[in-house]
Amino acid sequence: QQEKEDLQGKLKFREHLSRTAGKSEATPAPSKNSDLEIKQLQCKLKNSNNEISKQSTTIKSLKNEVQEKEERVRVLQAKISRLERDLSMKRHLIEDLRSRLKANQENEKTSNETLESLERKVKALAEDCSNKRSSIDSLKQRLNVATKEKSEYEQMYQKAKDELEKKDLKLNDLEGKMIATEYAMTELEATASQQLHGLAKQTGQALETIQKKLLLTNDKVEEFVTFVKALTRELQQRIQELRTKIKQAKKMGEVRACKKGLSQESVQLAASILNVSTTDLEEILEVEDDEEAAKTKMEFEKDKEWLQYIQKLLEAQ
Predict the structure, then answer these.
(1) Are 284 and 251 contacting, i.e. CB atoms less than 8 angstroms apart?
(2) Are 52 and 1 in contact (CB under 8 A)?
(3) Average pLDDT over residues 19-47
(4) Which of 91, 112, 116, 256 has its CA 20 to 30 A from that of 127?
């Protein structure tokens, strides 16, 4: 602001000088230096105005901040005053509590002494109580056992009574039945002896007829067994013959096929190479393969198994 005032004063002074110069000299042109100075001064004025506006805005913001801080300070001062009051109150309270503590401690000592004496008495009473409880529990257990035994004996007595009554009734019934059965037995023995004599005669006759039938059936069974054995042997022989015939037929067919495929010249050539006659070569061609021999063995074993199975069946009943 001071710089602004100085610049404004200088400007006014320059204007005054220019006016006075204009009055003294009617038409002389203003000097270049004075114009330049005026322009410089105007620029400085503008810059100072801008700075002033900036500073005024910062001052306002700072004022607002100061006001806020003052308000905070007031609030904090109020809080501090409250806290000081609370502190003083608490100090008074602490002093009261300390005095009470001392009084309570003194009371506690006396109460502790009385408590210890009471605890001793309580322990002695508790021991007496526990002893009495144990004795009461044992008596209760004895009582329970005695009551259970009593109830069991009563139940047993009642059951025995009921059973006795039932048995008496049964005995009476049985005695009546016994008399009736004895009478019936005498009658049955008489009738049974008569029937047994008749049955003995009938069974003797039936046994004789059954023995005759058994002998006949045994003869038939033996005949059937011999027939089955002969039949199985015959079947096995026939099957073997058929197999041999089938193999021979197959071999003959293969040999014929070979002979058809081979010309007589090739057969003679092969015989000359092997140093064998043509008939021997044909026999060589007719020789069985290992696989066919194995198959024949397997079939023979199967036939044996079949015969053994039939033998077992015949031996069984």
Answers:
(1) no
(2) yes
(3) 70
(4) 112
- Global pTM reads 0.29
Q: What is the pLDDT of residues 239-248, one digit of tens each?
A: 888 888 887 7
144's enclosing H/E stretch is: helix 32-261
Give the max Cα distance, the chain: 200
Q: Which amino acid is at 15?
A: E
Nearest alpha-carbon partner for 281 in 290, 272, 289: 272
Q: Which structure tokens are listed for 57?
A: 């805005």
Query: Is the CB of residue 44 less than 8 Å from the CB of residue 7?
Result: yes
Distance between CA atoms of 227 and 29, rounded to whole angstroms?
Answer: 175
Those residues with Cβ within 8 angstroms of residue 285's Cβ, 6 or more apart along the chain or in another chain: 254, 255, 258
| Alpha carbons 253 and 242: distance in angstroms, whole number | 16
Angstrom distances, CA of residue 16 to CA of 9, 20, 22, 31:
10, 6, 10, 15
**How does the average pLDDT of the chain come out, rounded?**
81
**What angle, rounded to 10 degrees, do the helices at 32-261 and 290-315 form?**
80
Cα 171 from Cα 59, distance rounded (Å): 135
Query: Given pLDDT bands bounded at 50, 70 and 90, which one contains residue 89?
Result: very high
**Residue of 265, 267, 263, 262 lying closest to 279 (CA atoms):** 267
CA distance 161 to 284: 109
Contact 4, 45 (CB under 8 A): yes
